[in-house]
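Quick one: sequence plus zinc ion SMILES, need structure tokens.
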Amino acid sequence: MTDHDPEFSRRTMVAGATAWLLYNVAEQRTSTVWAAGQGHAAPPHAGNPKFAEEATRLAIESVEKGWGGPFGAVIVKDGEIIGRGQNRVLITGCPVYHAEVTAIIDASSKLNPKALLGSDYGAGTMLEMIPRPDGSPDRVPARAKMLAGCEIYINAAPCPMCMSAIYWSRINRVYFGASLEDTSAIGFDDAFQYEDFRLPWEQRKNVSVTPNFERETCLKAYQSWTNKQDRHPY
Ligand SMILES: [Zn+2]
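Reply:
Sure thing.
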């Protein structure tokens, strides 16, 4: 057994999460449904293995049908699955067709009745505004709730794109089984992306980035947003 053994990683993760939960209960801390990124991440928590099993089932289906890599995800709200996703890069030829993004799109289509989109501040949809909690450093007083209060179960560690999608969607908890090292071991390499992200723009190793290109021109779009009186923060 090694640190790269998925079952070992999973059991270690669950044991660690349980310890965290007990610690937080002992401290009588309460979680919040506000987003990570504003300093209010929910504490780690003992997850439900059946959702990891469903994420894995989706991943295996994708492999067996030739749709994509061995990656699956489910989004859970109040103990129910509201979104499923699986990697479909091979059936679409689209490099960003990842399980987590697909699950977020699936959950969004379920929670956003089309007839309600475009109504006053998205009442009844994920665009409905929720106020920032007391003590949040967020400069915006309220934001769209998106998937606040939801959890995502993934059979593998999210790539940076999917982790960003999770932040954008305001999902509060992430559970994953296989580590980035496990993923590298079967020939998928997203660990380098996490390393590249730490470097300044001009020093990125895998892509040439030119920051501040025509900045004044580009900032006109930001002025348009700032000038819009009824803008909807999200
Ligand atoms: Zn991804």
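The longest helix spans residues 6-26. The pocket of zinc ion is lined by residues 98, 100, 158-159, 161-162 (CB under 6 Å).
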